[in-house]
């Protein structure tokens, strides 16, 4: 095993399923000091962040990050995500693209095969709603059926938590223009999207190659996140919005949503489930993934831990 500086072997990366979900950072300079990933605030106070213990770090406005910090996060296999106010708008991520060519090609093949794509979308419907989808429906028709169910679920949750709900609507350019329930939903789904993107990349797939969602940089991330949305972040968002409507919050609603999402991810053991669920969904097409060719491009980092998540770009 290769030795690091000072004669010590680099630490083994923590498998994705054993990490904490995510952490938000705002108004600070992120750097590496004495080998540690730290956030330095305006007064010069250092806060150490155990970067290898998180699936992703969400960087909000007011943060600056050094080259050394980005390199350390990459070696730890931790996704850095640059987001807008409230964690809603995603601008960039630290490791774009998948890490395994064979998995990317398999994913693309399934997306281009209409029969395989429909089988995958039907499996997503089954996992999301707990029942077999209607027969003889196209992908577009399945998308319409899901849309109706989603709107109905929003209405039911709003009624349950005493939230005044009109419709799902918010303006990317004006965060404050949205009402509290919509801001809570946006903050909650941003948490789930960040976590889902980290898992998609760790598994070696491409965020942009989706099946139900298409044509967006994070289409597959949205596909994956939707499988868990209504058991995790959506009820959280409406519960927090309900407390805000009753004057029972002592902090901004968006911050309360993040804390509650973190707890929901831990309670549902979400990080343990995302990658196996991705594999289950893709296997519904009935097409086995190919073995990587002998002359395939090797991993970005040598000596991969055989127990690590497939496609992980981490060093042991």
Description:
This protein is α/β, with parallel strands linked by helices and 316 residues long. The chain contains nine helices and eight strands. The chain has helices spanning 67-76, 101-112, 114-129, 139-161, 180-202, 219-226, 233-245, 253-267, 270-283, and strands at 20-25, 28-33, 36-40, 46-48, 54-59, 63-65, 79-83, 90-93. The strands form two sheets. Strands 1-5-7-8 form a four-stranded mixed sheet. Strands 4-3-2-6 form a four-stranded mixed sheet, with helices on one face. A hairpin with a 2-residue loop joins strand 2 and strand 3. It starts with 19 loop residues before the first strand and ends in a 33-residue tail after the last helix.
Write the layout of secondary structure elements.
Layout: E1 20-25, E2 28-33, E3 36-40, E4 46-48, E5 54-59, E6 63-65, H1 67-76, E7 79-83, E8 90-93, H2 101-112, H3 114-129, H4 139-161, H5 180-202, H6 219-226, H7 233-245, H8 253-267, H9 270-283
Parallel strand pairs: 1-5, 2-6, 5-7
Antiparallel strand pairs: 2-3, 3-4, 7-8
Helix pairs in contact: 4-7, 5-6, 5-7, 5-8, 5-9, 7-8
């Amino acid at each position: 095993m290769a030795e690091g500086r000072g004669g010590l072997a680099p630490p083994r990366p923590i498998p994705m399923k054993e990490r904490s979900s995510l952490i938000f950072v705002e108004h600070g300079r992120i750097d590496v000091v004495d080998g540690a990933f730290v956030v330095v605030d305006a007064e010069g106070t250092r806060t150490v962040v155990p970067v290898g213990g998180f699936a992703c770090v969400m960087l909000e406005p007011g943060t600056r990050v050094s080259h050394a910090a980005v390199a350390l996060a990459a070696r730890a296999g931790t996704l850095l995500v640059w987001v807008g106010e409230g964690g809603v708008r995603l601008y960039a991520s630290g490791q774009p693209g998948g890490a395994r060519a064979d998995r990317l090609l398999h994913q693309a093949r399934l997306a281009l095969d209409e029969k395989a794509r429909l089988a995958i979308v039907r499996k997503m419907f089954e996992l999301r709603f707990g029942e077999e989808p209607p027969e003889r429906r196209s992908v577009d028709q399945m998308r319409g059926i899901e849309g109706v169910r989603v709107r109905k679920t929003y209405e039911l949750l709003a009624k349950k938590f005493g939230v005044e709900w009109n419709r799902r609507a918010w303006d990317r350019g004006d965060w404050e223009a949205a009402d509290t329930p919509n801001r809570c939903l946006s903050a909650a789904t941003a948490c789930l999207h960040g976590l889902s993107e980290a898992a998609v990349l760790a598994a070696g797939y491409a965020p942009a190659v989706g099946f139900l969602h298409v044509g967006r940089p994070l289409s597959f991330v949205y596909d994956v996140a939707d499988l868990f949305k209504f058991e995790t972040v959506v009820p959280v968002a409406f519960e927090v919005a309900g407390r805000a409507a009753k004057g029972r919050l002592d902090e901004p609603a968006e911050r309360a949503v993040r804390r509650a999402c973190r707890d929901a991810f831990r309670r549902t053991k979400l990080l343990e489930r995302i990658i196996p669920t991705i594999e289950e969904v893709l296997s519904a097409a009935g097409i086995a993934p190919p073995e990587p060719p002998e002359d395939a491009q090797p991993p970005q980092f040598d000596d991969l831990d055989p127990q690590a998540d497939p496609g992980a770009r981490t060093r042991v």
